[in-house]
Amino acid sequence: MSPHVLILGGTTEARALAAALSGRPGVRVTTSLAGRVARPGALDGDVRVGGFGGAGGLARWLREEGVDALVDATHPFAESITANAARAATETGVPAVVLRRPGWRPGPGDRWHPVPSLGAAADLLPRLGRRVLLTTGRLGLASFAHLTRLHFVVRSVDPPEPPMPPDTEVLLSRGPFTLPGETALLREHRVDVLVTKDSGGAATAAKLTAARDLGLPVVVVRRPPLPDGVTAVPDVAGVLERLGLD
């Protein structure tokens, strides 16, 4: 029988993995999307949209669909999905691997302020600036809603969900972003502090270089830890090696 690989997707890496697996004869690939992005784009292989109903629902789906391997290639901040995937894999005995792009690392000249959460970022902001570029996605703006004296420029792929700060300007845009474009954005909106999650990858890293060049502080929300006993590989090649398909 053809091996069936389930990818928990939504990232650039998940898309690349689906393409790599679909190109191998006899491999069935299904990518599962949470449905949070309105226009996810075309994907190789089969696609399902929507949640599973927690770890138990995912375990049931793995059994019913005859899944032979599970790849968690979700966003590094999709903490609950990663936890559910780990529990479902343990319950069913399905081999699992986590695909996570490496996180960003500060370099000379960077003025980074690492924090453990969005709430901690909000607590720190008033001491760093008054005009904020917030690039933490469309969810979680409630953590900043009480900051009435700050001006926020919120950039996300889809419209953000309230509650949000009262003085908020929304920019709908999808990466990859360029260094000249990010520099122009920061200058045009007179941004004096940037807030981002440590998503990693090159598509949205230009803002960090632009902030460094302009001498701006950057509040970086650290990634949540992986579940106990779970390790990650950094790229598609690592997944293929783990699955014995390299």
From TrEMBL:
Gene Ontology terms for molecular function: precorrin-6A reductase activity
Pathway info: Cofactor biosynthesis; adenosylcobalamin biosynthesis
Keywords of this entry: Cobalamin biosynthesis, Oxidoreductase
InterPro entries for this protein: Precorrin-6x_reduct (IPR003723)
Domain of life per record: Bacteria
GO biological process, one term: cobalamin biosynthetic process
One Pfam family cited in the UniProt record for this chain: CbiJ
Coiled coil regions in record: none
UniProt protein name: Cobalt-precorrin-6X reductase
